[in-house]
Design a protein that fits this description.
Blueprint lengths: L1 H15 L6 H24 L7 H16 L5 H23 L4 H21 L9 E2 L15 H23 L2 H11 L1 H6 L4 H27 L1 E2 L6 H14 L6 H16 L5 H16 L3 H16 L1
Antiparallel strand pairs: 1-2
Helix pairs in contact: 2-6, 2-9, 2-10, 2-11, 3-4, 3-9, 4-9, 6-9, 7-9, 10-11, 10-13
Pfam family, one: BPD_transp_2
InterPro entries: ABC_transp_permease, LivM-like
Organism: Pararhodobacter aggregans
């Protein structure tokens, strides 16, 4: 009952939010919540640290933007096609890297992301360092106008809720249980007859698809796709978001994403000092909130329940 009331309250807040908060900021938060959830599926549940996760996000932004601007796709078809394309890229990356783990997996994904970065830098359709600009917000289903910030917000909200629900179903399925087992003891899982590499490839495929969807949504929000979206800075930021909220928790990385986006928005006026403040926050979290904010809150609630 408490969970239903909480979800109802969140729904009311989400529906009313654009009338009180700048819709662009809210849509940015939603995009990074989906992006953080995709990263959480890899590191939080499968134990795979990906240093190049921004390649799915940034490439998704370019593909989604190009499909809407040059391909004439409606916005929902562009999002769907981008999700499938990035899932395919994730599958290829998985085939290359799934047999490795730990720092080896992280460095392989970083190397591939740098290759993708320079590939897109040279590709003519990306317009190099200028980026893909003036991306149109094409009509939903070809008939519903979503060009205004308010109408686009509700579309992004609906897609984000569906993506997060999909992520929830993944981690609470038997497949999700196997991923957690691989994270905790891969050798034991292999001794039971499972092939961990196959599960890693599927996890990377699903994670890449969600990240690509987040990138396409961001491109439609800002109507531009740039190489910055593929940079290591973005990959590092998403790691920070996940650690801040709490890896391996459903809501943790989403909370971390929301906090970092709002922090960046409020600290933009301070220039380089914003990076110093972010670093301080990260240091405090590492020293005093090892499980992340949501993880520590859940641990505190469990301790209180045990004592009661």
């Amino acid at each position: 009952m408490t969970r239903i009331l909480l979800l109802a309250a969140l729904a009311v807040v989400a529906l009313a939010a654009p009338f009180f908060v700048y819709p662009i900021l809210l849509m940015t938060i939603l995009c990074f919540m989906v992006f953080a959830s995709s990263f959480n599926l890899l590191l939080g549940y499968a134990g795979l640290l990906c240093f190049g996760h921004a390649m799915f996000f940034g490439t998704g932004a370019y593909i989604g933007g190009w499909l809407m601007k040059e391909g004439g796709f409606s916005i929902e078809l562009a999002f769907a096609a981008t999700t499938l394309a990035m899932a395919a890229l994730g599958w290829v990356v998985g085939l290359i890297s799934a047999r490795r783990g730990g720092i080896q997996f992280a460095m392989i994904t970083l190397a591939i992301s740098q290759f993708v970065y320079f590939l897109l830098l040279r590709a003519p359709f990306t317009h190099g360092e200028d980026g893909l600009q003036r991306i149109p917000r094409s009509d939903l289903f070809g008939v519903i106008d979503v060009s205004s910030n308010l109408s686009l917000y509700y579309l992004i909200l609906a897609i984000s809720v569906a993506a997060i629900w999909f992520f929830y179903r993944i981690v609470h399925s038997p497949f999700g249980e196997v991923l957690r087992a691989i994270r905790d003891n891969e050798g034991r899982v292999e001794s039971l007859g499972f092939v961990p590499e196959r599960f890693k490839i599927v996890a990377l495929t699903l994670s890449a698809g969600l990240a690509g969807l987040a990138g396409a949504m961001k491109a439609s929000v800002y109507q531009i796709a740039t190489l910055h979206d593929l940079s290591f800075h973005v990959s590092g930021t998403i790691i920070f978001m996940a650690l801040l909220g709490g890896l391996g928790t459903m809501a943790g990385p989403m909370v971390g994403a929301a906090l970092i986006v709002m922090l960046n928005d409020h600290l933009a006026q301070f220039g380089e000092w914003a990076l110093i403040i972010q670093g301080t926050v990260f240091l405090v979290v590492i020293l005093f909130f090892r499980r992340g904010l949501v993880g520590e809150l859940q641990a505190f609630i469990r301790r209180r329940s045990a004592k009661a």
